[in-house]
Amino acid sequence: MNNTIKAFFLGLLFINASVVAQKPKVWIYTDMSDNTIPGKNHMKTVNDPDDISAMAGYLLMANMFDTKGIVVTSTHRSEHKNSGNQADWANDFFGKAYKKDVLNLNINIGGYPKNIEFIQSCIKESAEKYNSNTAYKSLENYKTVALLKDEVEKSNEIINVLCWGSLTEPAILVNYCIENKRFDLLKKLRFIAHWTNSSLHQGTPEDPAKVANCNEDRAACEFLKAQALKGDITYFECGAIGQHGIVSGSPKGVDYYNQFKKSNLGKIFAEGKFVQDAVDHSDAATYWVLLGNYGVSLKEIVSNSNNSPEVEKKNEERFSQFSKKIHDELLRRSKAAEN
Prior knowledge:
Layout (H helix, E strand, L loop, with lengths): L2 H19 L3 E5 L20 H11 L5 E7 L13 H23 L10 E2 L22 H12 L4 E5 L4 H12 L3 H4 L2 E5 L18 H4 L2 H13 L3 E4 L3 H7 L6 H5 L5 H9 L1 E2 L2 E2 L5 H7 L17 H29 L2
Parallel strand pairs: 1-2, 1-4, 2-3, 4-5, 5-6
Antiparallel strand pairs: 7-8
């Protein structure tokens, strides 16, 4: 092999290594659970199944991220005290689908990890909520919070914590870092939350925190936002732009979404929560803004949790305009996964 050819292949290796190194590190907290468990919400399930569709979409996009952990059933539903191990459910439900699809995804697109595993939340059975009067000096009783802390400890890069529901676990981690003066860890954390604030939907300009994901554990929500306003943490609040941008602006009709059902992950995406002639995967906003080239990036969201109504409205409109592109990209990947 002559020197020119060697240089060419070395260049390709360098480019590929750079792409891998630039993948954002991601940790996800989701209230997602098995949607066959009966509950009292509007879907007659314990937890809203929109996170199921959002997770299937994330797995279709998984080659774009360095996934460090996915914590399921981080929620406060009393029904989960005896609902069975939800990590086992997720590893079976998503894990089997991912393993069936990943071969073709890597053949046709590339860069997907061999498998992605799920962890059950430490608050799933206790339904514990963040207590503003508690100093969380130890994480001994909070296994999934400790696992994230350990990932941050050994990382040289920022870990993006995507918050799809309750904020109790992120709040416990931030409290722990403050109590133990581990401000070095806080500098390596970036929180990206969906709909824990909105001046336009559920909430009001006078009380933007009056939304479901903040009412779930108000003390945790207020604590994190206070730390963000002080500048102690970075907290990107998406508002309701996933629901009222990506979902509202999405293609409509069974015919479009039936195209997804030829792959295993695509089928889960299309069927997780199909309402009003489209898929509800609103929490997906957290990873599309992280990617940053689908209408809204972190540059369009303030880092202190305090977006103005004007910013939220503008970002809704941007996501709505790019929603077709987002869904077509998911469909492209679903087709690439077909067996």
